[in-house]
């Protein structure tokens, strides 16, 4: 009997790690518009992507605001876009956290109900997709504030940085107001 209980605990832990890992690991790139193209390797699998995801693009835009000669009106517009997006995303993050707690409870149950576990996982993924969609919309709105010349300059600079990847030369544009890796509030860029 003890071996069966031990096996259930081990199996539950394995399932929990697999399910929780996939539930927490949302697509960082935010979707195909910023991800790999025809034949490129998947960045989630260690391959190269074609550029920064939506969240990083907003950070780059903040870091390059002076270099792109953004007017105060443009900065204010982008600041509002970011603030509105954060306001929309905040309750979704709470919802995702609550759903993860529910998932963990299902995974710890004496008898695993795979259908309920899968349904909860799907709920979490749907919330993550909504967050990714909002972030993507934020980027589109922010890019729409820029002139065609500013957008071209922004993506030109990002291409240069991609070529300098690993040299640290472009790190400053991606720095947030955080307190070091993993110690901030996760609020992203602010203008």
How would you describe what is shown here?
This protein has helices at 2-24, 54-63, 72-108, 114-145, 148-163. The N and C termini lie far apart (61 Å). Helices cover 62% and strands 0% of the residues. It is mainly α. The model is unreliable at 6-49 and 177-181 (pLDDT under 50). The radius of gyration is 20 Å and the shape is elongated. Helix 1 runs parallel beside helix 4 (114-145) and helix 3 runs antiparallel to helix 4 (114-145).
Question: How would you summarize the topology of this molecule?
Answer:
Elements: H1 2-24, H2 54-63, H3 72-108, H4 114-145, H5 148-163
Helix pairs in contact: 1-3, 1-4, 2-4, 3-4
Total helical elements: 5
Q: Which parts are unreliable, with pLDDT below 50 for 5 consecutive residues or more?
A: 6-49, 177-181
Spatial extent as radius of gyration = 20 Å
Percent strand: under 5%
Structural class by helix and strand composition: mainly alpha
Main sheet properties: none
Bin the helical content: 55-70%
The gross shape turns out to be elongated
Terminus-to-terminus distance: 61 Å
In round numbers, the mean pLDDT is 74
Q: SSE string, helix = H, strand = E?
A: HHHHH
Number-wise, the strands total 0
């Amino acid at each position: 009997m003890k071996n069966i209980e031990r096996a259930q605990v081990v199996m539950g832990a394995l399932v929990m790690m697999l399910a929780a890992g996939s539930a927490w690991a949302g697509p960082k790139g935010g979707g195909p518009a910023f991800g790999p193209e025809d034949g490129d390797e998947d960045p989630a699998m260690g391959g190269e992507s074609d550029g920064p995801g939506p969240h990083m693009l907003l950070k780059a835009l903040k870091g390059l605001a002076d270099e792109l000669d953004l007017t105060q009106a443009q900065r204010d517009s982008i600041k509002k876009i970011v603030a509105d997006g954060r306001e929309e995303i905040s309750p979704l993050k709470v919802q995702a956290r609550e759903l993860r707690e529910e998932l963990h409870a299902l995974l710890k149950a004496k008898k695993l109900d795979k259908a309920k576990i899968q349904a909860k996982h799907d709920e979490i993924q749907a919330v993550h997709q909504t967050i990714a969609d909002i972030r993507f919309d934020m980027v589109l709105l922010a890019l729409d504030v820029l002139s065609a010349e500013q957008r071209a300059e922004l993506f030109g600079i990002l291409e240069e940085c991609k070529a300098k990847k690993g040299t640290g030369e472009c790190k400053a544009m991606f720095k947030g107001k955080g307190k070091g890796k993993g110690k901030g509030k996760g609020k992203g860029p602010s203008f």
